[in-house]
Amino acid sequence: MDSLEVNMAKNSRIESQRLILRHVTLKDAEDMFEYASDEETTYYVFDRHTSLTDTEEAIVSYFIEDPLGKYGIELKATGKLIGTIDLRVKDSEKRALIGYTLNKDYQGSGYMTEAANRILALGFDTLGLGCIAALHDERNAVSGKVMERLGMQKEGTLRHVAQWKKGEWFNDVYYSILKSEYDEMKKSGK
């Protein structure tokens, strides 16, 4: 295990004003299934879960087998899991990619921006990364707005990335933020 992995392991629980970012467990299956079974929430991110068993299998294979950098987003006030966020660090490149999903019933309240700001702090302040990026399907403008609120800059569009639902092509919009830009935002209080 290298120092990057050690630092990620030391930060397996992160708190913000309203949220706790922590490992996902099988106890979260019902909360996750609530949004993972919703076509509107999952359309741009992953295949919709059709049963609680699908969700349990996803938790084990994605979140439990390799938990570093993967967080459930829990509301402090209720203990409810409302989404997930992850920081996928490219080995020794000092770059990472953020990915996230949020239950649609909790969108529009700033929860994802709050969670992602804590992930940026982890990446830049703790892990010493130089650049953090994110992608969103160009039809999912809401996700792009989150990236903009984080101070990320739109770099371009990756066209016809893959076929998704019903044989339809989709394009990904690529955003990123450099450590120097993040530091400047912190300094200015944004």
UniProtKB/TrEMBL annotation:
Any one Gene Ontology molecular-function term assigned to this protein's record: acyltransferase activity, transferring groups other than amino-acyl groups
Protein keywords: Transferase
Domain N-acetyltransferase: 19-180
Annotated Gene3D superfamilies: 3.40.630.30
Record-linked InterPro entries: Acyl_CoA_acyltransferase, GNAT_dom, N-acetyltransferase
SUPFAM superfamilies: Acyl-CoA N-acyltransferases (Nat) (SSF55729)
Entry protein name: Ribosomal-protein-alanine N-acetyltransferase
Species of origin: Alkalibacterium olivapovliticus
Record lineage: Bacteria, Bacillati, Bacillota, Bacilli, Lactobacillales
